[in-house]
Write a structure and sequence with these properties.
The protein is about 55% helix and about 10% strand. By secondary structure, the protein is of the alpha/beta class. An 8-stranded mixed sheet has the order 3-2-1-4-7-6-8-5, sandwiched between helices. α11 (about 325-345) crosses α16 (about 445-460).
C-alpha cells in the first residue's frame, strides 16, 4: 500500500466513521419530518397555511441570503491589490490537468497555462484513458510520442515544463491520486481540461498563499461558458448569475472559517496538506468537495489551524452544460455527491469541536439536503391549486412569490456590485440581464436545479454509480 493510501485510510470518515452527536440525528431526521408535517397542511387547511411547505422554503432561503449579505459586507470596501511583480516567496507550483476525451480543448487549456505571467514549474496532462483523438492532438502539440499506459513521458521538447501521463480509465479521483506522486512542488493546482486560466492566475495564487500561510486549499473565480446556440446562451445566462451569487456566498463562509466548496475545475492545494489527508476519494462523486471536509477534520483533530479560501484575483473560464439533459446530469451527480459527503461527515453536524463549521455550516448543509424537495413540493402544490380553481389561495401564494422575486432582485444587484469590486470583472455581469434572470429564474432555472438535485436523491438512495457522460460544449 502506498503512503497516499495509508494516509487516506487513516483520515477517511467513510472508512473510519466517527460517532455522531445526538443533535446530528435529531436535525437530520427532523428536517424530513418537518417536510412531511408541512405537506400534511395541504390537506388539513384551506388557508394560506396549506402552502406551509412553500412558506418555509421561501423563509429559509431569505434567511440564508440575509446571513450571506451580512457576512459579505466587507467586500463593499474591497480594493483589488496591485499585481506583485513577483511573489514575496517563490513557491513552486505543479499543475495537474486531468482529461478524458477532451481533445477539442486540450491545446487551448495548455496554451493558457504556458502563457502564465508566473509559469508553473511542472504541468502534467493526465489522460484518464481517453478514447477520442487526444493522443494525436497531444503528439502534434507537444511533439512527443504517445507514452505507454501508466508511464510519464519525458518533458515536451517544445515546452520544457509539460509532461504527459497516460492511465487506464478509472475516473478523475484516481487520475489525480496517481499523478500526485510525480509532483513535489509547494502548491498543487488542479485545472479541468475545459477550463482556461487568466494569465495572472498562478501568480495571484502564489502571492495569496505567501500572504496567508495557514491557507491549505483555495479556489478562484470561474465564469461559465456554454455553446453559442440558443439553448446554450439561455443556460449560460442563468448559470453566470448563479455562479456570481455562489462565489459571494463562498466568500461569506470563508469569513466565518466554514468554506467547504472548492471548485475542482480550479483548485489550489498545499501539497503537504493534501498528501497528509490521503488525496482524493475515488468513491465520492464530488472528490473536490469531500477532500475539503477531510482537511477541515484533520485540522481540528490535530490542532493545525488550517483554513480554506476563495481568491477573487485568481480567475478562469470553464465550459458548462449547454443542454437541459447535460445540465440535469451534472446537478444530479453534484447533489448525490453532496449527500454522500454529508452522510460520511454527519458527526460534524452540531459538533462544537468544529466551531462555526459544526455549529453553523453543517446544520445549514443539513437543511440544504432537503431544499430542492421543499422547492418542488411548493411548486407542485401551487400547480394543484391552480388546476383545482382555488383562486384566493393562488393569489396569496403569488403575492408571497412576487415579494420574494423583488427581494431576490435586490440581492442579485447587490451581489453584482460586490462581485465587481472584488474581482474587477464587469463585462461578465450586465445589470439588465441580471434583472431578467431574477424574474425568470423561479419559474424555470430554479426548478431545473431542484429537479436535478432530486434525481441526485434517488441515485444516492439506490446507490447507483452509472451516470452517463455529461456532455459540455467544447468552446475552442
Amino acid at each position: 500500500m502506498n503512503p497516499l493510501d495509508v494516509a487516506f485510510n487513516r483520515c477517511s470518515p467513510r472508512l473510519l466513521p466517527r460517532k455522531a452527536p445526538v443533535f446530528s440525528y435529531l436535525l437530520t431526521f427532523g428536517v424530513t419530518l418537518l417536510w412531511l408535517g408541512l405537506l400534511s397542511r395541504a390537506f388539513a387547511s384551506h388557508s394560506l397555511l396549506a402552502w406551509s411547505a412553500g412558506i418555509v422554503y421561501v423563509s429559509y432561503d431569505t434567511l440564508l441570503i440575509i446571513l450571506i449579505t451580512l457576512t459579505s459586507l466587507p467586500l463593499i470596501l474591497h480594493k483589488r491589490p496591485q499585481l506583485h511583480a513577483a511573489p514575496l516567496k517563490n513557491l513552486s507550483v505543479g499543475v495537474i490537468v486531468p482529461a478524458f476525451n477532451e481533445a477539442p480543448v486540450l491545446v487551448r487549456t495548455l496554451k493558457a497555462l504556458i502563457q502564465q505571467k508566473s509559469p508553473a514549474d511542472k504541468i502534467i496532462l493526465a489522460d484518464d484513458g481517453s478514447t477520442d483523438n487526444s493522443s494525436q492532438v497531444l503528439e502534434q502539440f507537444l511533439q512527443l510520442n504517445t507514452p505507454k499506459k501508466g508511464e510519464l513521458s519525458a518533458a515536451s521538447p517544445r515546452f520544457s515544463n509539460i509532461y504527459w501521463l497516460r492511465l487506464p480509465h478509472r475516473g478523475k479521483a484516481h487520475t489525480l491520486n496517481h499523478t500526485l506522486p510525480y509532483l513535489h512542488t509547494d502548491l498543487i493546482v488542479t485545472v479541468d481540461a475545459d477550463t482556461r486560466l487568466d494569465q495572472a492566475a498562478l501568480q495571484e495564487a502564489k502571492t495569496y498563499f505567501t500572504d496567508h500561510p495557514r491557507v491549505v486549499a483555495a479556489t478562484g473565480i470561474l465564469t461559465p461558458q456554454c455553446a453559442p446556440h440558443t439553448k446554450g446562451k439561455i443556460l449560460e445566462l442563468f448559470q453566470r448569475y448563479e455562479y456570481i451569487r455562489n462565489f459571494i456566498s463562498r466568500y461569506s463562509f470563508m469569513r466565518v472559517d466554514s468554506l467547504l466548496l472548492i471548485s475542482g475545475a480550479l483548485a489550489i492545494f498545499k501539497r503537504d496538506s493534501l498528501v497528509c489527508v490521503g488525496g482524493f476519494d475515488p468513491e465520492c462523486l464530488v472528490e473536490d468537495y469531500e477532500v475539503i471536509h477531510r482537511l477541515h477534520r484533520f485540522s481540528v483533530e490535530h490542532q493545525q489551524d488550517w483554513h480554506t479560501a476563495v481568491i477573487g484575483s485568481v480567475q478562469g473560464i470553464t465550459s458548462s452544460p449547454s443542454t437541459i439533459g447535460s445540465f440535469l446530469k451534472q446537478r444530479r451527480r453534484w447533489f448525490a455527491g453532496f449527500l454522500q459527503t454529508q452522510h460520511w461527515n454527519r458527526d460534524m453536524i452540531g459538533n462544537p469541536k468544529f466551531k462555526l463549521l459544526g455549529l453553523l455550516m453543517m446544520p445549514i448543509k443539513t437543511f440544504d439536503t432537503h431544499q430542492p424537495v421543499y422547492g418542488l413540493s411548493a411548486f407542485t402544490l401551487l400547480l394543484w391549486y391552480v388546476l383545482s380553481g382555488q383562486l384566493s389561495l393562488v393569489l396569496g401564494i403569488l403575492s408571497i412569490m412576487l415579494s420574494k422575486v423583488m427581494f431576490d432582485s435586490l440581492y442579485h444587484l447587490w451581489s453584482i456590485l460586490l462581485y465587481r469590486r472584488w474581482t474587477g470583472l464587469k463585462h461578465t455581469s450586465p445589470i439588465a440581464y441580471a434583472l431578467l434572470s431574477s424574474l425568470l429564474e423561479p419559474f424555470s432555472f430554479q426548478l431545473l436545479r431542484h429537479l436535478g438535485a432530486t434525481l441526485g436523491w434517488f441515485h444516492f438512495m439506490t446507490g447507483q454509480r452509472q451516470w452517463g457522460k455529461e456532455k459540455r460544449a467544447h468552446i475552442v
